[in-house]
Amino acid sequence: DPGLGPEELRAAMGKAKQLWGPPRRFRPEQILQLGRLLIGLGDRELQELILVDWGVLSTLGQIDGWSSTQLRVVVSSFLRQSGRHVSHLDFIHLTALGYTLCGLRPEELQHISSWEFSQAALFLGTLHLQCSEEQLEVLAHLLVLPGGFGPVSNWGPEIFTEIGTIAAGIPDLALSALLQGQIQGLTPLAISVIPPPKFAVVFSPTQLSSLTSAQAVAVTPEQMAFLSPEQRRAVAWAQHEGKESPEQQGRSTAWGLQDWSRPSWSLVLTISFLGHLL
Questions:
Q1: How many C-alpha atoms does 267 have within 13 Å on its Cβ side?
Q2: Which PANTHER family does UniProt cross-reference here (predicted)?
Q3: Of 136, 154, 169, 274, which has the fewest Cβ atoms less than 10 A away?
């Protein structure tokens, strides 16, 4: 139940501990049953959970609502119990960690393999990650390193769609240079998580007017508050129209997005991920 508050979650976990004993004795199937109620555990109790089971790790990684301290406790406990270094995490580990990946500090995230992360980005990008702006910037940088997708300027719209919310970490200069087709590859969720000051700086009125109606509707009130009057008009036009005027069609043609010959990663990543699970 997503409506349960912190106090209710702690109360429910208290009942679970009465039935099953302390968290260190929880069996994997019990942890799977508890799901989001695990948010009601204290930091020390979270450290006691056995996280080396894949089902347990992926269950915790799919829970949205951890505090920043809890995120840190979960991912640190997994690394300690598994004896793994961040640089040894493959894309299956990264996918299973899910939301808890934001428990790693920026300097730790830098050690993630760019190739492995580019494989996991297809899933991680669908999450509203509770990462800081600095953490998102590190994650986005992994995608341009050797083994990733290469320079942002060469990305087709499909790459922006595949990496989802991670696109919010792309540097200001790279975002401000995006072409119309690239911008329209950004998912609405990615649009909504770009920090408001950054959103106002990187997107010109022309770029904002090229948003799809779904993207424009995703612009948050906090982001709108930082925009200039001209930028606000561009977003409002995109929200209500969602199609180009003759003037903008000419401008779009002038922008021109180059062909991108790299094969689509969606099918490749999905097949690879399922192959590891089977």
A1: 3
A2: STEREOCILIN RELATED (PTHR23412), STEREOCILIN-RELATED (PTHR23412:SF14)
A3: 274
Q: Angle at which helices 114-124 and 133-142 pack, to 10 degrees?
A: 120
Cβ-proximal residues to 120 (8 Å cutoff; 6+ apart), any chain: 91, 94, 95
Contacts of 74 (CB under 8 A, 6+ apart): 46, 51, 60, 66, 100, 103
Distances (CA, A) of 33 to 4, 9, 46, 48, 59: 16, 14, 16, 17, 10
* Cα separation values, 145 from 132, 139, 169, Å: 21, 11, 14
What local confidence, expressed as pLDDT, does residue 242 receive? 53
105: left (phi > 0), else alpha (psi -120 to 50), else beta?
beta
List the chain residues with pLDDT less than 70: 242-278
For the entire predicted model, the pTM comes to: 0.81
Here the tokens at position 3 are 């409506």
For residue 22, give both structure tokens. Answer: 């302390």
pLDDT in tens, 139-171: 999 999 999 999 999 999 999 999 999 999 999
Contact 127, 149 (CB under 8 A): no
Whether 71 and 96 have beta carbons less than 8 Å apart is answered as: no
* Those residues with Cβ within 8 angstroms of residue 191's Cβ, 6 or more apart along the chain or in another chain: 211, 215, 218, 219
